[in-house]
Amino acid sequence: MPEEQPGRTRSGTEQPARPQTGRDRLLGSLRRPSRGQAIAGVLVGLLGFAAVTQVRVAGQDDDYDGLREAELVQALNGLQAASRRAERDISSLEETRDRLNSSSERRSAAVEQARTEIATLGVLAGTTAATGPGIRITVEDPRGTLNLNHLLDGIEELRNAGVEAVEINDQVRVVAQTSFEDDDAGIRVDGVVLGAPYVIDAIGSPDTLAGALSFSDGFIDDVEDDGGSVRVQKVDEVEVSVTLRPAAPRYAEPVPGQ
After folding, report:
1. Is-contact 9 3, C-beta < 8 A?
2. CATH among 2.130.10.10, 3.40.1360.10, 3.40.50.2000, 3.30.70.1880 for 130-240
3. What is the C-alpha end-to-end distance of the chain, expressed in Å?
4. Quick check: pTM over 0.70?
5. Whole-number Å distance between alpha carbons of 158 and 30
6. pLDDT tens digit sequence for 103-147
7. How many Å apart are CA 241 and CA 245, to the nearest integer?
8. Parallel, antiparallel, or unpaired for β 180-183 and 186-189?
């Protein structure tokens, strides 16, 4: 008995093909995916992976999600306590800074005041050179008739007028302990023999110093009456460069703590 062939009837005639349904086309596309379908599948997979990752990250961003109310209150109290400790630390550091600044300012002011006093005392004691406005006095003695009393009178008038530094002939610094003696060659000042003309440089108020020497029967009149002459020049800047070496006291001692 002959076998029947597909698509043929027993009589040997071909039967018409059955039309494909939507299910048949879907199954066929799944068995043989096109290139576009493969790419679309990959993209869908990547999109899903990204969505899962985003959800996980979002869940990690907020550490307090899922905590109970009591736990949240405890966490808040801990943060507030840490904030108060930080504020106390900041306040303590600011107080320390203020104390250091105040102490440093007081120390700087004391040091500056001490430096000023040392400089002032150095000028008055003759141990420091000085410069400033003042006068230059030139005393001529053509007949050799002047003596130490004339110079002493002039120095005393300058002191009374507030002179701050005095120098004679660029050789001798005049201070409270300066000695004057007559000498055959002139006048001996602190052991140094000086001869005319006597040039006295004095630092102080030019007008006040000049006025102290020129009043009636004062220094200038006395010198001129005894055959000498005096010329007074007001100078914007007088330089007194001779300095003295301070002598160590023989009897006096500084008071401790002063």
Report:
1. no
2. 3.30.70.1880
3. 147
4. no
5. 124
6. 778 888 778 888 888 888 888 889 999 999 999 999 999 998 999
7. 13
8. antiparallel
- Per-residue pLDDT of 21-53, as tens digits, reads 555 655 555 555 555 555 555 444 545 554 544
Helix, strand, or coil (residue 167): strand
CA triple 174-175-176, angle to 5 deg: 135
pLDDT single digits (tens) 40-90: 554 445 455 545 445 454 444 455 556 666 666 676 777 777 788 888 888
What residue segments make up the domains of the chain, in order of their start? Answer: 36-125, 130-240
Model confidence at 172: pLDDT above 80? yes
In sequence order, what are the residues at sequence separation of 6 or more whose Cβ sits closer than 8 angstroms to the Cβ of residue 207? 234
Paired residues of 202 in beta bridges: 135, 166
Of 190, 111, 105, whose CA–CA distance to 155 is shortest? 190
Q: Are 173 and 240 in contact (CB under 8 A)?
A: yes
For β-strands 186-189 and 192-194, DSSP reports them as antiparallel
Amino acid letter at 219?
F
